[in-house]
Amino acid sequence: MMNIGRINRLEVVNKAEFGVFLDAGEYGKALLPTRYTPSDVEIGQFVEAFLYFDSENQIAATTETPIAQVGEWGLMKVEGVNNVGAFVSWGIKEKDLLVPYSEQRGRLYEGQTILVYVYTDKASGRIVGTTKFNKWLDQTPAQYQPNQEVDLLIAERSELGFKAIINGEHWGMLFPSDVFGKLFVGKKLKGYVKGIRDDGKIDLALQKQGVAKMDDLSGKILDLLEKKGGFLPLNDKSSPDAIFAAFRTSKGTFKKTIGSLYKQGKITISAEGITLV
179 with 222: CB under 8 angstroms? Predict the structure, then answer.
């Protein structure tokens, strides 16, 4: 079965001067224009191609990789607005993605960069975008454990902190006390489940909590010391940015961890940095 709006592995069934035709199953043959066709491809071979409907609602193919496929989120720029909705750059030269007015949480304007979820509209069969994420999230019970590592996508900034999408399935919140480094809408990063409240809302953190946090960082510090010949130019006086760049952790956690490693006799600390014993 072909997945429209996603990358498929398709067989070349015909060649022409202007490209090749790919077997798109129940959708017939999809043209892959010459500019996107590998120069040495032959009939019977397979290519990885993205399938979509062109402006005339015909099946089409490209080897370009879209910013987001169906079922994914992506940061896109609004290229234009008309009486139907807003059109955003999708990463496909021949096709912009429509975000209908009914799928806009707030009115969009040309030049704006927004986070978009891509899906197939069941009524029309068209691939469209939306900025209304609630109907796609929290549709299943959250089965997370404290300190579980998860994939995060920063989706919104609010007075409370940053709202993030967890594993593409649930909403979570990063409060200012758990934020370090630079965060922005559209950023993807690893995070940890801090806890699930009685109302089902999920609190997040960018590092493990409690003893597990320090144990995890201890291992990372010792591993990097081994790789760097036993010395790192970092200590408790280093800047938060330098520490974050090396270990993606806060300065406070780093200071506590190297203090613990020092007490255990695993490192020494000097004005120049830390050294492996």
Answer: no
